[in-house]
Each structure stands twice: as structure tokens, then as C-alpha cells.
């Protein structure tokens, strides 16, 4: 079962802990939902934008868990970026992951990404900055401040220019790590996140 | 005990959490708490070997998850899992451990002294808060042996064999207790060195509804040291 946890390190300002979590239609979006729930447990105030919901029962349950925890779901994403800049401290980009193929061209992702390109508050991307090609990276796409690579960094992470790069998802058995020659960094102690 | 069961019911029925999700978070808390109280460098054995004894229900499942995370944290867990439910969840958890080269003992060490020699720590994941009635074999003999073990024992949620509310004065006396979600009544009888809280997944609304009055977890930690 895909019980992943992605904990972006809380380098966000704590005094108004509002965070916008933008979730795409597939697995990356589902990870965003799990992340939002844990952010709520950590006393942040997440708000979710999840326009195209997956029919997968597991992901539908993730949605219920968030709703029952009083995490608001926006019915639309303001195109006026100043509204986003003013209301939130950061945006978690859980729109598209490594599995996306041309997904960024399809609505509503294209419109979301167009808006996110212009916001000024930090973006934390989960696994792959949405809209980037998982291997070659993106030009003219979004520029996240923080990248949280899941399990291991993807090829496109080489082009990441933001402030902090973390690896999270401490669950890869050693034989899988060896088989795919992943050489992940060592996680400190019992941490599930390591800064690169 | 009823309150704990009621909270669980709400989590599964209203919040739509899956058993997998909560068991994973619970098991991870246990491994994390153990790693904080008994870092590998503190072991008297040459390697940080841990015996994880898993019972026939969810407490056993928590133990399997815990064993897997202990392996990820650099410990060398060995599991004893004599009564396995034939449900996909438990079969999958077992496979995950096996694929990570965590050995499963074919039989339980007959003498407490053997356990003391081979392992630096025992994790008691036999019975949890749903435990009612008598202890069926093989767990009666297992608990008798564990009661004579001198290496530390870390119990998951309830020291196995204890009455969930009243404890058991002549029963297992673990060194560590990891209470999941909230401490149970039996925890008032706990006399060991380390009491941790784990299972950081109870939504604030449920905490209020059941007046759990849990102290705050530090930062993003999934465990809280109570004593």
C-alpha cells in the first residue's frame, strides 16, 4: 500500500502558518493530500486546491480524511496571483510527478501552472517541479524554492536551482537501492527527510 | 478500552483511514521511540540485535511495521510470529520484512538466558488494547519466558498479558511503553523507565471530542517522550 509520507521541512514562517497545497489528478496529487493532512497535524493551516479528483478509492479516502480534518478545499484557484501571495506563506506543488507525460498541457494543470509561474511566495515541489520533464528539466516552467525528491532524486533535479533540496520517503529496502544503483544519502537518526 | 475502540471506529468509519495507514504510522512511531531510548551505541550486544515478538492481531501488525523501520534505522531485528492472520495486510507486512532480510524464527527461544545473550532488546507486540480474556498458547509460555528476560522490553501500547485498565502486578514489567494515540488506563501501572506517546494521527476534532488532552508533540516528531 502506498502509504508515503512527504514532510517538507518546516522552514516556513510559523506566525501565520497558511499553506496552499495544489493537488493534481494522479499520484503526485494524492501525496499532496497526505502532506496536507500531516501539515494540519503539525499545526499549519493548509488549504487544498484539487480540481480534478482521482477516482482511485485510496485517493478518495485521502480526500475524506482532509475534509474531516476541516482542511478547506478551494473551488477555484485565483488567477490574480497577488491574492495567493497575500493569503498564503507558501505553495506546495503536488500537481504533476515523474509519471506525467505531457500532462502539463492538459487542463486544469496548464492553467494552474501558468498561475504558479507568477507567484512570489515560495513553492515546494513534490518529487518533480510540475511541468518539468522528469529527465531533462524545464525551461520557462515553475521555479520552486524547495524540492522534495521522493525516494531518490530524479534526473531533472540536476537543474533545480532553488534554495533547498530534500530527499524524503525513507522506505526503500537495501536490495532495491542496490539494484537500481540509487546511492541515496544517509538519513540522520530516525529522520524521514534528509537535506542534500 | 471502550474509548480507545470508539476512537478507532471513528477513524476508520468517518475519517476513512485504512488500517494500513494507521498501522504504518503506529509502527513507525514505535521504531522511532525505540531508537531514541535505545540508540544502537547503547547496546551491550556486539550488534544492535532486537527480537520482535508479534501476536495474532493488530498489535502484531504494529510489530511487523516496527521491525521494518528498525531495519531501516540500522538495527538488526529478528521476528517471531507464530500465529499469522490470513489477511492480505498481514501477509504483505510479512513479505516486506522477509524481503528486507529480517529473519523469522521457526521457534521461540526456550530459555530467557538465550534471549539475553542474543538480543539487546525485545519488542513486545503480542497483545494490544483489544485484549480480553485469557492468554492462549503459545503466548502463555512466551510471556512466562519474557517475564524472566533481563534485557529491556519495549511494549507496544499495552504490556502484553496486562488487563487493559488494571494492569497486572505479577505480569510483564517492560522497561519501555509506547502508548499509541493516547495512554490507556493500564499505563498508570507502568513502572519502567521510558514512556513514549506515538501514533500522531488523531485529528484535532477527535482529540477534543474525547477530551484526550494530549501534550504537544515536539515539532514534526512522530513521538513524544512522556517520562
UniProtKB/TrEMBL annotation, chain A:
<dbReference type="InterPro" id="IPR036652">
    <property type="entry name" value="YjeF_N_dom_sf"/>
</dbReference>
<protein>
    <recommendedName>
        <fullName>ApoA-I-binding protein 2</fullName>
    </recommendedName>
</protein>
<dbReference type="InterPro" id="IPR032976">
    <property type="entry name" value="YJEFN_prot_NAXE-like"/>
</dbReference>
<dbReference type="InterPro" id="IPR004443">
    <property type="entry name" value="YjeF_N_dom"/>
</dbReference>
<dbReference type="GO" id="GO:0052856">
    <property type="term" value="F:NAD(P)HX epimerase activity"/>
</dbReference>
<feature type="domain" description="YjeF N-terminal">
    <location>
        <begin position="1"/>
        <end position="184"/>
    </location>
</feature>
<dbReference type="Pfam" id="PF03853">
    <property type="entry name" value="YjeF_N"/>
</dbReference>
<dbReference type="GO" id="GO:0005739">
    <property type="term" value="C:mitochondrion"/>
</dbReference>
UniProtKB/TrEMBL annotation, chain B:
<dbReference type="InterPro" id="IPR004443">
    <property type="entry name" value="YjeF_N_dom"/>
</dbReference>
<keyword id="KW-0413">Isomerase</keyword>
<dbReference type="GO" id="GO:0046872">
    <property type="term" value="F:metal ion binding"/>
</dbReference>
<protein>
    <recommendedName>
        <fullName>NAD(P)H-hydrate epimerase</fullName>
        <ecNumber>5.1.99.6</ecNumber>
    </recommendedName>
</protein>
<dbReference type="GO" id="GO:0000166">
    <property type="term" value="F:nucleotide binding"/>
</dbReference>
<keyword id="KW-0630">Potassium</keyword>
<keyword id="KW-0964">Secreted</keyword>
<dbReference type="Pfam" id="PF03853">
    <property type="entry name" value="YjeF_N"/>
</dbReference>
<keyword id="KW-0496">Mitochondrion</keyword>
<dbReference type="GO" id="GO:0005739">
    <property type="term" value="C:mitochondrion"/>
</dbReference>
<keyword id="KW-0479">Metal-binding</keyword>
<dbReference type="GO" id="GO:0052856">
    <property type="term" value="F:NAD(P)HX epimerase activity"/>
</dbReference>
<keyword id="KW-0521">NADP</keyword>
<feature type="domain" description="YjeF N-terminal">
    <location>
        <begin position="4"/>
        <end position="214"/>
    </location>
</feature>
<keyword id="KW-0547">Nucleotide-binding</keyword>
<keyword id="KW-0520">NAD</keyword>
<dbReference type="InterPro" id="IPR032976">
    <property type="entry name" value="YJEFN_prot_NAXE-like"/>
</dbReference>
<dbReference type="InterPro" id="IPR036652">
    <property type="entry name" value="YjeF_N_dom_sf"/>
</dbReference>
<keyword id="KW-0809">Transit peptide</keyword>
